[in-house]
Amino acid sequence: MTERSFMRRLTSGLVPAVPYLWLGVFFLVPFLIVLKISLSDPAVAQPPYRPVFDWSDVAGFFGALDLENFEMLTQDDLYLRATISSVRIAAVSTLLLLLVGFPIAYGMARAPERYRSLLVALVILPFWTSFLIRIYAWIAILKPEGLLTQALMALGLISEPLDILNTEAAVYIGIVYAYLPFMVLPLYATLEKMDDTLLEAALDLGSTPWRSFWTITVPLAMPGIVAGSLLCFIPAVGEFVIPDLLGGSETLMIGRQLWSEFFSNRDWPLASAVAILLLIILVVPIVIYRDVEARRVEARP
Amino acid sequence: MGKPWRRQLFLRPEHPRLPGSLSLSGEVQSNCLLPENPLPSAPFAAPSPPWSDPGAVPLIRVENVTKRFGEAVAVDHLSLNIFEGEFFCLLGPSGCGKTTLMRMLAGFEMPTEGTITLAGQNLAGVPPYRRPVNMMFQSYALFPHMSVEKNIAFGLKQDGMPKDQIADRVGEMLRLVQLEKLAKRYPSQLSGGQRQRVALARALAKKPKVLLLDEPLGALDKKLREETQFELMDIQHELGMTFVVVTHDQEEAMTMADRIAVMDHGRIVQVATPGEIYEQPKTRFIAEFVGDVNILEGHVMGQENGLWRVKTASADVPLTIDDPDEVLHSGQAVAIAVRPEKMVIQRDPPGPGAINVLTGEVWDIGYLGDWTVYRVKLATGEIVRVTRANASRFVENPIDWDEQVYVTFAPDAAVILAE
Prior knowledge:
Chain A: This is Putrescine transport system permease protein. Chain A is mainly alpha-helical. In chain A, about 75% of the residues lie in helices and about 0% in strands.
């Protein structure tokens, strides 16, 4: 009896701990390792950094850690430019995703109920193919003699081949295409729950459909807009594959920088410092969002 | 402001039969609403209501309107006039088309055929946001992301009203519905009754020509509903606005409305004052839908002294019914409708020559506090429902279960419904 209740208490105490356990093992521990490497010095050795943790000399180990790599990040403006460029590309992409995703989600939420689950399935369908293959496919579409140019020339809309591949425009196309489900699904979830009579009430009170959209639909869809934007913005800032394949050498993004420090230069400590920087950039919007959300909830429980 | 006419009980239309041409046995009480003295038309009579004035111009004119959703006909060739200042009720069972009719008035649906005019303006193609009509929704449809104040101000803002005027009007509306203290709250922080008031204030804020109310009290509990009914009537009286209410609750309609339109299968069955609907229902559907009623089936035998004699299996002696407006022929099958409160139940046999006597045995007794309901089983197996007001706290020797009883009613307590 007592043992059973103890077991029950143990399990009921453990269940809420599961996400923390997960985060601890797969986020916090790796984060600490990366943080430690970022404070180390590069070395031509295996592993390629110094100092390596050693129980016999803990004080010496901590003494050898320093902020050199972070200084390096501030001194070379390449990293600053890459960061700004990443944030800009991610922000513009998120905006484009909202513009493309909102009508899709709205249309889905307005579709007859029996079609809705099918539409949701269709939105997720691209995931059945490898992400990498789908991005490669865009090369075939966007390259100067690619499908897009052929189609537009056949229609007589352009006379010169389009030079989109290896530009930022191609990166935007790639990000919007690849991330669209992450924008559409949270938007759909909030829009689908919305009470249609609210819109009718707004119309009834003299608000045109366009104004009702901005005064009723958009504010009520805000949780979905924020969730979708975060789901797209955060991975887009650190995106490596899309700018690497579609953006050419001109497109500067922090994710690519990280990659080249890590694999080309084999400078693990500097790459780790870039990773920590990236993390800080991404944590800031999440904290702001949580703060706003908490205040909103406080305002109307 | 206020409305120029007064709500009245149902008065029997004038008819040629001489009063008192039939002497009733003593036990039978008269439930006739006719005043003791013949009613003089002057000097205290209020101006006659617009619906009985052939020259009056209606505010809302529904002309031969049909609304189809695919194959289904929601509203079927319906015509209706609603006058300025009226408290008008659309009453009917669910699916009778009353909500569709209201949504057509609001502009959320357009008629498939026919026209609706409001103050002379044809509303065809006019979107909801350009109609001088506001609606209070059944679900209230309060904007959850706006405070009470902002909800009420919403419609005024759309009109581009200056800010200080909006604040004044919002204050006025909050006072009207007694919610001044809750102006800054959000809908989720309000009780059901408070939300209902916000919805009302928001719909009234623009002072529309017509206020549409879709089941306005449906979500409230009984006590609150009753209070709110009277409040709605007071507000309507104070503002002199035209109210059109959709409801399936006949009690609500009876309490509030100047006139009721009873709808069934997309058509209007009867439009009349609550008193007339209750006391002079046109059809069996209305008699049964509005209030409780006992229906006795029979055949017309003929007319004597302006009173109809109807043969029915339920009574040994043919019934005598005072319903002079009916045009009937001998042998015609009819239904006699008698309200339970207009029947008298007694243990002692009525005197010889008594009319309209049904005999049976008490099957059930329901004590409701204010009323007692007796269900009396007749020899035919029919159950007749008789109610008696519990006018005193104690009754000596009350009628008990299984007792043999006599149920009587006055000739003018019954209505003949031709089938």
